[in-house]
Amino acid sequence: MQTSLPFKKIVIIGGGTAGWMSACYLAKMWQRYDVDIKIIESDAIGTIGVGEGTTPSIKGFFEQLGITAKEWMPACNATYKTGIRFVNWSSDPNYESYFHPFYSQLDEYFQHEFFQNIQLKHRGFDVHAHPDQYLLASELAKQRKAPIEPEHYPFDMAYAYHFDATLLAQFLKKKALQWNVTHQVATISQVNQKADGCIASVATEAGEEFEADFFVDCSGFRSLLLGKTLKVPYNSFADSLLNDSAVTIVTDREETTPSMTLSTALSSGWAWRIPLTNRFGNGYVFSSRFQSPEEAEDEFRQHLGLPQGTQFNHLKMRVGHFEKGWDKNVLAVGLSQGFIEPLEATALHFTTQSIVDFVSAIDHSEEQDGYSNQTAYNNKLSDRFSCVRDYIELHYLANSRNDTAYWKAARSHIPSRRLQRILTTWHQGKSVPRVLEEESVSLQLFGHESWLCLLAGKGVFPSSVQPSEALPAPMRINMQKIKHFVETSAKHYPPHDTALAELKNS
Amino acid sequence: MLPIPQNIIIVGLNIHGLLTALLLRKAYDPAVAAITVVGKVDENIPSEVMLAGKALNTLMTHFDLAEANWMRQTNATFKLNNRYVGFSEQSFSVPNTSEVDILHRPLMFELTKLKRQHYELDLALDDFFFSKALATKNLSPKAQDFPFETDFQYQVDSNGLLCLLRKVASENDINTQQCELDTLQLDQDGNLQHIECENLILTGDYFFDCTASAQLLIRNMPEFRQESLPDVRVNDRKLSFTVASECCASEITTTALDSGFVKQYFLRDTVHFQYHYSSSFTQDAQAVNVLERHVSNLGYQHVLQRHLSESRTCLASQSWIKNCLAIGPACGSTEGTEDHELGHTFAMLEHFISSIQSPDDVSDLVKNYNHRIKSRFIYEHSYYNTLLLLNSRRNSPYWQTPQDIHSLSPIGRTLFSQWLKGQDLDVDPIFDINGLTAWYALFSGLGHYPNNDVKPHPKAESIYDNIQDMCRKIRGCCLNFQSHESQVAEGQNHANVTTV
User: Fold this and answer.
1) Is A70 part of the contact surface with chain B (CB cutoff 8 Å)?
2) Residue among B402, B325, B340 nearest B5 (CA)
3) Which residues in chain B touch residue A492, judged by CB atoms under 8 angstroms apart?
4) Is the ipTM of this complex over 0.95?
5) Which domain holds residue B170?
6) Which chain B positions have a beta carbon within 8 Å of A152's beta carbon?
7) Is B164 found in the same domain as B73?
8) How far is A487 from chain B (nearest CA, A)?
9) Across the interface, do A488 and B472 touch by the CB < 8 Å criterion?
10) Could you tell me if A229 and A329 lie in one domain?
11) Would you tell me how many other CB atoms lie within 10 Å of the CB of residue A466?
12) How far apart are CA B297 and CA B365, in angstroms?
């Protein structure tokens, strides 16, 4: 553990969600040190704020900052997220949709039965192996309930949030300023390097120059320091993930607020719907190789039932990551480090984990300059990117749609060695969790439950040739009992809108 | 395949005989099977408390008696836990199992293992048991919209139960005859052909011996053999006291006394004490004094009823011979701190009925039945035998008799060896009695952890946080449950309404 910090002055470039998250976390975690943290934000560069989905790790991030849900959620129009429902990703009518949940302690209860039926389904028995029937979060989402554990039903629930990222950046900005982060509105015009390549200072269009020992690059897809200046090589995922564009729009909210993200497959990509307290954030992620922006806009408009002439926003995405997230005296956080398309809402997971891991690496550095853990940090980050990439890629590989060239192309490329092994294991009806453990994937964001949910939820099974009655009695799962358990458990949780109103009123 | 019974003769007009009759009636329509129960009713037997499982409620409900109704008629209360006092330095619980426990069982396994590996941990397994938490708060096992099943038993007044069963039997085409067995007749194959009771000759295709230790039928069957169970300390006496009480607990207590142990049961308005002791170590008069003092120390003054009886252990080597089955204590009787007498009877009839429906070979069915039933008694005895051999009480000659752990039954020896080696206990899942949890509770409760070379655990703080979190969850779950007393009172009201 370090007794002093190797940096006296840290400059953060960029004031989006990643920039303010970094500022808050560094200021809070290193408040015991004498360190000057400055954030330089350009008023010429906008932020992308169409409603952000997250993963459960963000809950721990807020807890570490000491910020309660009561405090930040109402300020950011935030809602609770139990998971994601995937619709129309399979052509099999029995698997028209499935739910990828955040797991609760209660899901352990029938996990064995779920796994057993997956095995039996692979052996051709007509048993229930659709994940929705086993999982509490799926039921909560169906009933539009909040995943908040009541005192009388106190089982651990994993959940995440949806929120307006622009409002979150504003909220965190106030916090950061309270925690002595200084703020400079300026546009960077020049980056100055030392002889060893490290960043010495940044100069602004207004002629000011800011020196620092360490820089955090939160400049978005521009990757001003890590990519443009340090020229760290970029590892593109474009070969395996086809989507490179998005069209977005906000729409009115419904009478009650869903507690899940909806992901609906369209002809050349998929559309998200993220519920906020005041509206829905919608987007269509597509591949420009298969659809023009105008065609995408038209299809998306029809999907949402909006009139002709509706105005949409268009975005371009670069899918992949820089080979190092931390090079010399620069840490890239957020889009400047890398991006995998938003299918599983992993962007802020990378953001928070990057900054959390960085602080841990510095705090536990064996060398005074703080750099002893840099290689390990970068290796871990690369592992995280490749594991998440594999999981996202599996969504496309496992699709069974034949209606457009896009969906056929989406499953026609050769996956990574690891993903091939996982798929082979699945098709052989063998233990996927064991392979995930051997490949160290189980330690990453998506545990084995997620992988099984995806494959079972998309109906990647051989045809059933034997009725379940052919099984010996002890092997027949009592689905009524599971249904009763899940539905009765769900009764204990509050309606989503009630939980949100309580937050607001408190 | 075994033929479906058409003419069933049951000897023993007692609780086991009538339960046998009703369980068979539930399985076989009167148009298919005639059922006759013969025997003498001894009206002077003092009441005692028996433990019955949920199967009793299933049976009663089948005959249109709602739980609240039959519980009122038998003065029944619920039982969720058995608290053991005086067997080691700390009291400990052997709870009824709950599905809530499944969620934190891995933690219990891990921590007991660490403690056996010489780590210094302040660990009380009572904290891990949901039924124990309910019992401590004197809650009932009843909750609304709580999907985890919690096993429980009923504390039932034996005379009330007997009256109720007789009434139900009379209303459901069961012919009862108050007469004593005079003689019986076997055919050339060794099957029971008929029995003679006073002036009656009763022929049947299946005969059930429910005559308890008298074993009036089974001991006359060919190849009958009585087995003895390995005794540790023979408690050959049972002294019962009944006292009035205004409150009833949803747990029973088993307390080690000078020459045996006393079990404390709660009915609706009475508390029953059963002192099981050895006449080799104490006189009956002394036992009375000891029990009086125990009852008085607990704050009870006026004893309503006292009764002294003898008890013995036995086990029929085969309880199903030809067309005769010994049911209940006629099959076997083991002494123990956990009461499975009624549970055995229900299990026997369940096995018998499923055997009748089975397409398997007849001799295999009977062999399998006998093996399973015998295993139940041996298993139950093993648990008790382990408690007596491994406890740390040494304050009287009774408890000072040499303790040789080599005297443990094979089951107890295997499990204790696994415990000492720090392994997970491997308990056969077929047993519905004293399952895995009970063995962990026993070894841990009796304090079988290393005392020497204990070392602090580097993650002790995190371990205690986990335990605290588990306790918080268990406390939270308890909020769903109704109080024991109100549940019993609700039953009273409900039953009255039904009667009206």
Assistant:
1) no
2) B325
3) 145
4) no
5) 7-78+154-229+313-378
6) 476-477, 479-480
7) yes
8) 9
9) no
10) yes
11) 13
12) 52
